[in-house]
Structure to design on (87 residues):
């Protein structure tokens, strides 16, 4: 009996960026930041401007996750360097 043929390898998942979640204490809501580059290479804290008017200091975790295509986000940046204070 012939072996069933396996289909091609599954296609690579499309890249939708990375999601970093943080809480806004002033409003009591969870915010989502979309980042285009992988944030695990540099885990220094970032300064994120919030809708509440405050700037939140967010610790970047090396345990990040990929963003899904339909996942909403509150702020989008190309790189976390855009949110780091300049020394």
């Amino acid at each position: 009996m012939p072996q069933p043929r396996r289909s091609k390898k599954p296609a690579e998942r499309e890249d939708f960026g990375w999601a970093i979640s943080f809480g806004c204490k002033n409003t009591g809501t969870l915010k989502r930041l979309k980042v285009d580059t992988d944030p695990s290479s540099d885990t220094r804290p970032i300064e994120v401007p919030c809708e509440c008017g405050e700037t939140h200091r967010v610790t970047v975790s090396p345990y990040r996750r990929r963003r899904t295509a339909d996942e909403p986000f509150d702020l989008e940046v190309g790189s976390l360097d855009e949110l780091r204070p300049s020394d």
Q: What stands out?
A: The radius of gyration is 18 Å. The chain is about 0% helix and 30% strand. The chain has a mean pLDDT of 81. The first strand starts at residue 18 and ends at 24.
